[in-house]
Every structure is written in C-alpha cells, then in structure tokens.
Design goal:
The chain has 11 helices and 20 strands. By secondary structure, it is α/β, with parallel strands linked by helices. The structure holds inosinic acid.
C-alpha cells in the first residue's frame, strides 16, 4: 500500500486541485482530513472547469473512492450542490462517496453565526462565512452535531433546536435573520435526507484495504493551520500534515510521500500578516495574469514574492518529501523576480519564521533578485527545455529547502506539467 499526502505549503490556493487530479490517476482512495466548504479545488475535465469545495478532487476519476474524513466539518447543502454539479459532468459518486460517521456537521445556524461574527468584527479575519469556526467550536465544546446524528431524526431535531436556543440566548445571531434561517433549515433537512446514504464508518477503508493506493488531499495551507499558522488569522483546523492522523485515523508512519504544493509566488486571502505582499504594479500584474480570485468567495487574493522562510518552516513542519511548484508561467513576463531569503526586524536578521510568528506584521523581507526568463513557457514539456533563468530560479528554491522539486505546473491544463 502506498499512501501519499498533498499539502498546501503557503496560505492556501497553491493549485492543489490540479495536482490531486493528476496523482489520483493511480489512486483507489482519495481522502480529505480537515476543513470543509471553505476550500475551493479547481480541476478541468475535457476543458471544462469544475470547482469542488468538500468532495475530494479525485472524484472525477471514476475508480476512486472519495472519503470525507472525521476531521472535516461537513455542510450537507454544499455536498448536495457538489453531487449535482458532478452529475452535470456525467460523474456519479454513488457507492464511492463516503462521509465519516463521526465527522462534525455544519448547519445553517453555524453559517449564520460565522457571518454575524464577521460583521461584528468588521471582517477582521475575513472568513469564508461557511460556518467552519463555529462548527469546530461546537466540536471542542462537545455539543457538536455529528454525521451519525443525521441518521436519527429525533436526536437531530433535538440537537438543532438546542443549538438554535443557545444561539438566540447568547446573541450569536440577530433576530432579524430568524425568518431566513427557518427557510435555510428546511432546505437543510431536505439535503440531509439525500446525504444520509453516504454516511459510513470510514476507518476500515484505510486499515483493511492493504492493497490500496491512498491519496490524502489537504485543504487550505500550512500558514493557515490553527496551531502553527499566523494565529488568529488562520482557519480552525490543522491543515498541516499533523492533521492527517487525527482527521483520518492514519498514523504518520504509514505515509510514504508528503508532497508540498507551493505557488511560484505567494498569495493570501482575508486578513493577517503577509511579509512579501506587493502593493505595486508587480503585485497587480501577478493578480491579473494569475487570475487571483478566490474559488470559494470570489474575493481578490493579495499577491507577493515567494517567501523562503515560510517555505522552510512548511517543509520542516510537514516533513515534505518532495515539492510541486505551481503557476510558474505567471512569472513569464517579469523582468526581475524576487525571493525572500530572510527578514529584518529592529536591525536583527531573522532566518526562522517561528521566531517572529507573532510579530510578522513588523518584519521587512530581505530579497535575492533573479533575472526573469521573459518568454512563454506554457508548452514546454521537460525540465531541460525550460529557459536557463527559470531553471536557476527552481534550483535555488530547491537547494535552499533541501527538498527536490519534482513537479512544475506551467498552466491550468492537465498536460501543462513537467515531471522533474
Ligand atoms: P475560514 O476557514 O472560513 O474560517 O476562514 C479563516 C481564514 O482562512 C480566512 O482568512 C480565509 O480567507 C482563509 N481561508 C479559508 N479557506 C481557505 C482556502 O481554501 N484558501 C485560502 N484561504 C482560505
């Protein structure tokens, strides 16, 4: 059995969907271990764009079982929308989509609380308003609703009514939203009826299928990890590889390959520190050429240069065995490309981001400059055929991180990929 994990090395949106799609070709199971509908994984099937939020991107390979693991928070309304979307593309997931019976479930109440909190705080965190934080809060408060509860109408009614009473009593939602909430709850109950058939104990799928090739699909990115990210500007789960053990029940020593996905530059959505962020023409150019708009919320992404301190931390934390560098083609027209190789704060040089994780807003990046390659690389098919300046850039990143860059993505299409 080979188990491989794919994890975002930066702040999410590194282009994991395409890589999962490619590598799921040889997988029997593709599984997600954390997060929920806050993710947006974009894949292309026969030239058509499909964006999945909860169902693993491997779903478009018909041989793959798709597991939504115990560490996720699952939104039934969103699941039904995705199943319908896949049906429109002639992809059926019956008998191969499995939602872990102990995964926690998002309700319209959680989504409303998320939205209300965001409004109250003036969008401080800039969450996706998908109910992620409030659902994980209920999990840790030990009052959450789990998938298994959906199988028993009485338990479910009771839990939902109790949660609504708490939300009203604690002023977590505004009374003016109650009418719409009732409408949403009705849709929610309809979706639950249809989603029930996918609920299953997924633990044996991993431990009894010793012949399986399992691909583990991370969501968001390492710097959004609740424990190791830029707290409080993070999501509410462990996106780093540590989350796999608790989110799927697969211990770390069973995973052979951990592939880190890095964009050839950096982006971030929502609030929080971002040392290499660009506010100039280069930043605008990256956003425009890279179509840097969120797949889940449509918000524009903040853009900046590649940050090797982020990447080094990510390599150490996740134990990356190899790296995929995505969207290299977006840098095609840049005359100069910069890479952050250190920070400076109060005249002191910083080589490890962990020293300043709580103070990232105040660091100044130290850059190394590279000459751009200034030509179109989107149809190149081997590492050797890349322009010398692009090779130098890739080699520098790989040498600094001491991890091989084995996959280079040079466009959105399946064939725009270089294996190195
Ligand atoms: P939440 O996960 O909706 O609670 O949002 C918390 C923070 O994580 C916000 O800054 C979001 O923009 C960010 N975030 C959540 N999911 C993603 C993602 O898939 N890609 C990039 N950023 C994300």
């Amino acid at each position: 059995m080979a188990i491989q994990a794919i994890i975002g090395g930066q702040w999410g949106d590194e282009g994991k969907g395409k890589i999962v799609d490619l590598l799921s070709k040889n997988a029997n199971i593709v599984a997600r271990y954390q997060g929920g509908a806050n993710a947006g994984h974009t894949i292309y099937k026969a030239g058509q764009k499909i964006v999945l939020h909860q169902i693993p991107a491997g779903a478009i390979r018909k041989q793959c079982l798709c597991v939504l693991g115990r560490g996720m928070v699952i939104d039934p309304i969103g699941i039904l929308e995705e199943i319908n979307l896949l049906e429109k593309h002639n992809i059926n997931v019956d008998n191969r989509l499995f939602i872990d019976n102990y995964a926690h479930i998002v309700t319209p109440i959680h989504k409303l609380i998320d939205k209300t909190n965001e409004i109250k705080s003036g969008n401080e965190i800039g969450t996706t308003c998908k109910g992620i934080g409030p659902t994980y809060t209920d999990k840790y408060e030990r009052i959450g609703i789990r998938a298994i509860d959906l199988l028993s109408p009485e338990i479910l009614d009771n839990k939902i009514q109790t949660r609504l009473d708490i939300a009203i009593k604690k002023d977590e939602i505004n009374s003016s939203d109650l009418n719409q909430l009732k409408v949403d709850l009705k849709i929610y109950y309809d979706c639950i009826q249809k989603m029930k058939i996918y609920i299953k104990d997924t633990f044996p799928l991993f431990h009894d299928n010793i012949q399986s090739n399992i691909l583990i699909e991370g969501a968001q990115g390492t710097m959004l990890d609740i424990d190791f990210g830029t707290f409080p500007y993070v999501t509410s789960s462990n996106c780093s590889s540590g989350g796999i053990a608790t989110g799927l029940g697969i211990p770390g020593n069973k995973i052979q390959y951990i592939l880190g996905i890095f964009k050839a530059y950096t982006t971030r959505v929502g609030g929080g520190p971002f040392p290499t962020e660009l506010f100039d023409e280069d930043g605008k150019k990256m956003a425009k050429i890279g179509h840097e708009f969120g797949a889940t919320t449509g918000r524009s992404r903040r853009c900046g240069w590649f940050d090797l301190l982020v990447a080094k931390y990510s390599v150490q934390l996740n134990g990356f065995t190899n790296i995929a560098l995505t969207k290299l083609d977006i840098l095609d027209s840049f005359e100069t490309i910069k890479v952050c190789i250190g920070y400076e704060i109060n005249g002191k040089k910083i080589n490890n981001i962990s020293e300043v994780l709580n103070n990232l807003d105040h660091v100044s990046p130290i850059y190394k400059e590279f000459e751009g390659w200034q030509c179109n690389i989107e149809s190149i098919s081997s590492f050797d055929a890349l322009p010398d300046n692009a090779k130098l850039y890739i080699k520098f990143l790989s040498d600094f991180l001491q991890v091989p860059i084995t996959i280079i993505s040079i466009g959105p299409k399946r064939n725009q990929i270089i294996f190195n």
